[in-house]
Amino acid sequence: MDELPLILAFAIVLAGALLFTNAVEWLGHSLGLGEGAVGSVLAAVGTAAPETLIAIIAILSSEAGSEDVAIGAIVGAPFLLGTLAMGLVGLFAYLYRERRKQGVRLDAHAETLERDLLFFLVFFGVAGALAWGPPAPLRIAAGVVFLLAYVAYVRRTLTSGGEVQGEETLKPLTFDRRATRGESDPPVWLCVVQLLVGLGLMIFGAHLFVEHLLGIADALGIDALVLALVLAPLATELPEKVNSFFWVREGKDALALGNVSGAMVFQSTIPIGIGLLFTDWSLSINAFVSVCLGFTGGLLAYFSLHRGNRFTLPAVIGWFALYIAFIVIVAV
């Protein structure tokens, strides 16, 4: 039975996420980074790593169909983040609206959120426009632009990430067992150790989750491309969602949304840039549909969160509807 190992894998991811979020907040505070930069760069890149590694390994594999799996994993991740992840963050904001001092109103760094969502819309949109399998010179040039764009994004975000999170809002570092903890900031090296342990647990748990999920899917006879587009991103993107649930519950919208929107930027630039460089980037119908629906989810986030400055129930329903629509299309 794969159900119990699946639950255990999720528990490992959850434990890693708790350690990771706590360490990220302290590390960002120690380095003087704004909340927007902490969520969009440190948290997002770290927790997006498992999905990217799976895509790279698939590209390097010589097995038949591995390139299709790589492309499916690459476009499936930003699609999931722009639909299901956004929907779950919004849902948790509603569930905990009485606990949140701002209720359903958005309390985030507007400049960082706008930059993240615009980056995502531009580059994921271009990825969809190139879905026909362009000639190598165009693909390579586009791939280089995608990679360089993310470097520019990181540089800009680190220099304008909003206010530094106040120490009074931080919970004690989990690994800090000093008798005097609370009287002074924990050492940076201890924050890094806890962050790496948390990240390691998340990666280990995510891979266990994928392994046993694939076992269940194989027993049901599900197509490998469907796994790449839906199941693998769902498992490996769990860290982003879990981290954001904790943060949005506590009213830390800059961290919660920065973690998701920052991952959307990363997944729509770095993995896609690699895909453009090392595959023919000829997307299947299902892959192209996921790009279109993910792009629509990004537009919904831009207008409801950045323009509307609040979590709205219609937007939450819309994000879930986009994800469910794709599942129905793939299942047919």
Describe the fold and architecture:
The protein is mainly α. It is built from 12 helices and no strands. It has helices spanning 3-31, 35-60, 66-95, 110-129, 136-159, 188-220, 224-236, 238-249, 253-267, 270-278, 285-307, 313-331. The mean pLDDT is 80.
Structural class: mainly alpha
The biggest beta sheet reads: none
For the terminal residues, how far apart are their CA atoms? 27 Å
Q: Which overall shape is indicated by the principal axes computed on the Cα atoms?
A: globular
Quaternary state of the chains: single chain
Radius of gyration computed on alpha carbons: 19 Å
Order of helices and strands: HHHHHHHHHHHH
Helix count?
Answer: 12
Keyword list:
332 residues, globular
A few lines on this structure:
The chain has helices at residues 3-31, 35-60, 66-95, 110-129, 136-159, 188-220, 224-236, 238-249, 253-267, 270-278, 285-307, 313-331.
Task: Please specify the SSE layout and strand pairing.
Blueprint: H1 3-31, H2 35-60, H3 66-95, H4 110-129, H5 136-159, H6 188-220, H7 224-236, H8 238-249, H9 253-267, H10 270-278, H11 285-307, H12 313-331
Helix pairs in contact: 1-2, 1-6, 1-8, 2-3, 2-5, 2-6, 2-9, 2-10, 3-7, 3-8, 3-9, 3-11, 3-12, 4-9, 4-11, 5-10, 6-7, 8-9, 11-12
